[in-house]
């Protein structure tokens, strides 16, 4: 059993270079030149959601949802970090690209002045906006056509905001109802509606393995094929492969990422706990990043720290350090 890295140990070791050489998968053969980065590192805003939401989450999801829709100002009052400050925070972490979460500025999608200020904050920090992760805007694969159209209407403002911010994509949830096969058809129909609108704004529509059948990679692959639109794609997350909470059913994460990578337009490096050597306990980053690279992906991989053993800042830095170590090892291969 691996020992977890606690906050004290992290602080003691943060200034030390990682020891030991990790084994590299022999199958990897990167076609990029030595001058080209194997991948770049971005920061997903969910990594700082506790700083942004403050104590609002302690009220429970139902009350938090009410505040989100009706009193977002009260959430901001308790924040130790605001969305407008996120680009500068990322730069302080040594990261030059960000992935927003819509609930971190939920009342500002149509606020042109705010979006202009956010663009300026990015310019001032030398940070690039990549995408917006969209939640709390309805089921993309809702049972009725009317509901799916309403979900489209709810997402339009975020697609427009993504275009204003210079993003390439929005991430949506392929939530649905019905049987396994019925949900495929419903999700594909809803995604196609979003893609048609996204096409007008030059914005891609990505689906993350994010619970329910979307965490079943074979299901999501079928949805991608059924959607049949160049704007649709996946955002594989290293860890979100729990299909059912009632039966605790999991899809193999390495198999899942392998299957989702042919459709990937972004990648999320989820991290929770670290061992005493600075490795993520729940995911073999060396193996997982190898899968990403072997698929021919050399874009941004976004840090998404979600652990409790370290502070959000420390968890981000620990994840970044590990990713940089893995990247260096692959460059040497």
TrEMBL record:
PROSITE patterns: PROKAR_LIPOPROTEIN, TAT. Keywords: Isomerase, Signal. It holds the Pfam family AP_endonuc_2. Residues 1-31 form the signal peptide. The keyword rRNA-binding does not apply. Residues 88-316 form the Xylose isomerase-like TIM barrel domain. One of its GO terms (molecular function) is isomerase activity. PANTHER family: BLR5974 PROTEIN (PTHR12110:SF53), HYDROXYPYRUVATE ISOMERASE (PTHR12110). This is Sugar phosphate isomerase/epimerase. It comes from Sunxiuqinia elliptica.
